[in-house]
Amino acid sequence: xxxxxxxxxxxxxxxxxxxxxxxxxxxxxxxxxxxxxxxxxxxxxxxxxxxxxxxxxxxxxxxxxxxxxxxxxxxxxxxxxxxxxxxxxxxxxxxxxxxxxxxxxxx
Length: 107
Description:
mainly alpha
């Protein structure tokens, strides 16, 4: 795997973690520090119980995101990524936004 491919993979890891945390926040599955809220997790369908919330606290509060960013040699403000991950997830808005990004631009 070349360096660019590795960096793209690590960027995808960060992107997935942000989306997972946003969905967990929206569903009330985690507290302010991304720790699972047991009573909330118990109300999820079986397949979603821990998939959404596993390791979010470690990733965002115990050096996970910093390790990934360092390994990939990313130069961005990690606090901005963390703040984004705390925002509620609006599936309709996210879908419309990603569709706009795929529309080829003329000119």
